[in-house]
Inverse folding.
């Protein structure tokens, strides 16, 4: 990779280190089956929940609601889609989902080895979720203390990917310039093209080997390819 020497590697979390989709699908399927046994649309619940995720998280990131409010709104929206009454205590109901989610959290099989292979680099996680929730995820997948600080918009003065300030502030939190940091992630906009505006370099983790990503950016299909790429 050309340019100034890379001193730090930042990882995205969901979809990069953590199989968030797998955990969320399993958790909401279990939650719904327990709440609405025999419902004819139970098989659709994971996809419905996934479709609701980003719109309500975007509302929270924009400051239009609190974390708790977006959770209640999302759960209410799912129940409305299924044409069932929303739980009387939405916070408790979401808590049930969250317990199931954390039990289902798994690191991708290539994550721990990839982190271990980057000894000598300052590591960190740059993610758009809430601070406590993201730290809990890192603990749940066994990477606490191994992958560096968890940096979210809550500790970056309210700046979330792909806001350029999210990347510059993340680099500054590591005591580095953006040009000295490499971001690795699965989202083309938030993790690949977004940081380029600041001079931060990036690698697209294309786990599905879908191709068709932006030209001029390195692509890997597994984190196992990251260390060799950096050595090259």
């Amino acid at each position: 990779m050309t340019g100034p020497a890379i001193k730090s590697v930042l990882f995205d979390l969901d979809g990069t280190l953590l199989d968030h989709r797998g955990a969320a699908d399993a958790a909401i399927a279990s939650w719904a089956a327990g709440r609405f046994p025999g419902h004819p649309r139970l098989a659709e619940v994971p996809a419905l929940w996934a479709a609701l995720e980003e719109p309500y998280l975007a509302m929270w990131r924009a400051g239009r609601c609190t974390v708790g409010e977006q959770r209640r709104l999302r759960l209410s929206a799912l129940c409305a889609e299924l044409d069932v009454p929303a739980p009387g205590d939405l916070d408790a109901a979401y808590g049930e989902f969250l317990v199931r989610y954390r039990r289902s959290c798994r690191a991708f099989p290539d994550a721990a080895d990839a982190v271990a292979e980057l000894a000598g680099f300052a590591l960190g996680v740059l993610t758009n979720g809430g601070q406590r929730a993201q730290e809990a995820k890192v603990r749940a997948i066994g990477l606490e203390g191994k992958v560096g600080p968890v940096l979210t918009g809550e500790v970056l003065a309210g700046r979330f990917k792909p806001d350029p300030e999210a990347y510059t502030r993340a680099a500054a939190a590591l005591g580095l310039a953006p040009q000295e940091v490499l971001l690795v992630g699965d989202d083309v906009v938030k993790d690949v093209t977004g940081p380029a505006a600041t001079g931060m370099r990036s690698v697209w983790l294309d786990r599905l080997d879908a191709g068709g990503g932006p030209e001029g950016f390195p692509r890997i299909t597994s984190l196992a390819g990251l260390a060799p790429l950096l050595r090259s």
